[in-house]
Sequence to fold (125 residues):
Amino acid sequence: MTEERIDACDLLCLALPHAEEIRGRLPSLAVVEPAASAAKGMADPTRLKVAAALAAGDELCVCDLAWIVGQAQNLVSHHVRQLRNAGLATSRRDGRLVMYALTERGRALLGVLLGDDVEAAIEIQ
Fold:
């Protein structure tokens, strides 16, 4: 038996003028790479919950985040670091605490992924 290939044309049928016009309008690699990095930054269910908690709490430490999302502190610390590395969260030291907050880009991406009512999307286990 042969496997039917439904994801590719059986013959080359390039509409060159149309394809070239679209190709010319594509964003450059310099634009696409940071967007892909941001998408990877939110590409984990725990990171999405952490980001949603930050959106609801404005600024939180890892201890609070861990309790809110119901995960271990070291796991939450890893995920908040990933958000920060992707430019989706910021951190600042407050004495012995490190406080985290979402950036505007982080809030915007979270809004796209979870909808405008981010606080309603938080499900504490």
